[in-house]
Recover the amino acids of this structure.
């Protein structure tokens, strides 16, 4: 019979079983500190890993000769300054 | 006859006592509330699926995955930071603002003590059906603040810079404002009757103001403005994906709105808003739906039928009526949301053309401005409505007090944090990477490998669509020679 399932009694047993628990105990404090440490380390690692990737790719592109040199140059022969007035394609009133 | 009597007596013998009935009803009520918040969380996931699709569609092909990855990793960083810090801020800073300082567990024992990451209520707890799901609903609001910001910064912000900023916004800034003005114990509520029932300002407005601060340091995308400061337009690589994303966001909003209410029948007499004032779920759902209708209408007419702004107008319309969604008559909501849809287009255009700020998705106008607008409207159209457990009438002055408190609370952290990242050269990707596209640097691949690459185009201020390469190279030369990006600020 399902009514014979000792829910209340078992609930108390289960409530007492909480890995490194219960709340407000040394176990939960340690888990909290470890979790915060993982979070901070992850954020720092994201910054460093991305910086490495971006710097490497930027250096590759600069060295590839595709981009214009980093010195003052006049616009190319086909370049035209856009006129000062005209309808915008941006949505608006 | 005797068998009938024994049957009746056995039935009565098995009948629960009033105490047992009370315990069962209390349990049922708690479980119903638990399910309610659980499913609002499920529905709110659609907001994030929507933001990802929306922003990835707006991005150019070369930036699709780097754009989507921001939305995905928002979940990875805001979840732990909100669990360890954000929820505690909400629980423990409610009764106090600047005047009273930090409110300890003894001042608000029922909630503050329950929000620490090591608390009984935050772990497997068979006696508490509500704390965990209530936390999750707020966590989803926190993700939303990050997602609001992420679209504005696309195609030039470093992923890691965005993650740091979204931790600050999602797990500290917005939740502090929620403690002040979006809780029964917030000082703005208990002292001034501040009323922002479904978070026009506390979620949307604050995220928009924070985003504005970041955009001022981040600068525009290369090529966005010409040398006279006039805006050019980048073509979204997939407008259909963007529109589908917005529709997903709208669907998720129903979960968002529902989660802003409080219910548990054995504790409260009925539905309550976040300030514990009486409300109904039906009225709120009505206002949302009418709000979309009005917002689409306003966005369509103000933008002369632009599809992007028509759908964004729907969002703006809803945000404009969210603050008073528990109070407004549907007709009033229809009128106000139409104005919100129109205002968003005008403000978005102003921000781009006059302020020369490159907000790739119009987040500052749609979420930021309309968030503040929504709270402003409550001061005009719902003044006198009793708010919160102190029954303080809402008023224009109280609403203004909230706006004055929340703008600096949001803008300054966004500006200062992004300024520090900029000084450390950690805010923006190198200009070479920006030209090539972030996906190659971040992921070393094109995410449409079987589709032929066609030359990227850009729309000039004259309306002419031209090949983008010469324009972008000119912008690149300006950046590396003079450090300027067109005529932008």
């Amino acid at each position: 019979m399902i009514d014979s399932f000792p829910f209340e009694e078992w609930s108390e047993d289960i409530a007492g079983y909480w890995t490194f628990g219960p709340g407000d105990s040394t176990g939960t404090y340690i888990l909290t500190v470890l979790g915060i440490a993982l979070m901070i380390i992850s954020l720092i690692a994201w910054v460093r890993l991305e910086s490495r990737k971006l710097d490497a790719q930027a250096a590759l592109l600069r060295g590839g000769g595709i981009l214009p040199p980093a010195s003052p140059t006049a616009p190319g022969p086909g370049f035209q300054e856009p006129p000062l007035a005209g309808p915008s394609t941006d949505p608006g009133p | 006859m005797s068998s009938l009597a024994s049957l009746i007596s056995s039935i009565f013998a098995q009948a629960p006592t009033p105490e047992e009935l009370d315990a069962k009803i209390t349990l049922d009520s708690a479980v119903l509330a638990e399910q309610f918040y659980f499913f609002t969380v499920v529905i709110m996931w659609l907001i994030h699926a929507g933001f990802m699709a929306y922003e990835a569609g707006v991005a150019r092909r070369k930036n699709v995955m780097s754009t989507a990855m921001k939305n995905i990793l928002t979940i990875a960083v805001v979840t732990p930071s909100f669990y360890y810090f954000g929820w505690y801020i909400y629980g423990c800073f409610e009764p106090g603002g600047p005047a009273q300082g930090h409110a300890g567990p003894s001042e608000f024992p029922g909630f503050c003590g329950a929000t620490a990451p090591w608390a009984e209520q935050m772990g497997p707890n068979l006696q508490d059906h509500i704390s965990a799901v209530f936390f999750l609903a707020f966590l989803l609001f926190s993700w939303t603040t990050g997602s609001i910001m992420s679209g504005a910064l696309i195609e030039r912000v470093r992923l890691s810079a965005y993650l740091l900023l979204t931790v600050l916004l999602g797990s500290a800034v917005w939740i502090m404002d929620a403690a002040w003005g979006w809780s029964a114990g917030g000082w703005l509520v208990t002292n001034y009757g501040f009323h922002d029932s479904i978070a026009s300002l506390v979620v949307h407005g604050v995220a928009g103001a924070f985003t504005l601060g970041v955009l001022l340091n981040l600068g525009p995308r290369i090529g966005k403005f010409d040398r006279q400061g006039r805006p050019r337009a980048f073509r979204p690589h997939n407008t259909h994906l963007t529109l589908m994303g917005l529709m997903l966001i709208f669907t998720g909003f129903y979960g968002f709105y529902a989660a802003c209410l409080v219910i548990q029948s054995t504790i409260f007499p009925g539905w309550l808003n976040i300030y514990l004032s009486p409300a109904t779920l039906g009225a709120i759902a009505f206002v949302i739906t009418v709000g979309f209708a009005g917002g689409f209408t306003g966005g369509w007419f103000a933008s002369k039928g632009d599809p992007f702004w028509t759908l964004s107008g729907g969002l703006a319309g809803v945000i404009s009526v969210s603050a008073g969604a528990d109070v407004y008559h549907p007709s009033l909501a229809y009128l106000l949301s139409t104005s919100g849809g129109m205002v968003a287009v005008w403000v978005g255009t102003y921000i781009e053309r006059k302020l020369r700020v490159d907000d790739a998705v119009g987040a500052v106008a749609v979420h930021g401005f309309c968030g503040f607008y929504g709270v402003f409207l409550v001061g005009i159209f719902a003044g006198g409505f009793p708010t919160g457990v102190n029954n303080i009438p809402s008023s224009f002055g109280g609403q203004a007090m909230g706006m004055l408190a929340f703008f600096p609370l949001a803008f300054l952290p966004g500006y200062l944090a992004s300024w520090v990242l900029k000084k450390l050269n950690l805010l923006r990707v190198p200009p070479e990477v920006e030209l090539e596209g972030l996906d190659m640097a971040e992921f070393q691949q094109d995410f449409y490998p079987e589709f032929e690459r066609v030359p990227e185009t850009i729309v000039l201020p004259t309306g002419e669509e031209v090949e983008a390469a010469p324009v972008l190279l000119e912008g690149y030369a300006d950046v590396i020679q003079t450090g300027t990006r067109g005529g932008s600020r």
User: Anything to note?
Assistant: Helices of chain A lie at 7-16, 26-63. Residues 21-57 of chain A form one domain. Chain A has two helices and no strands.
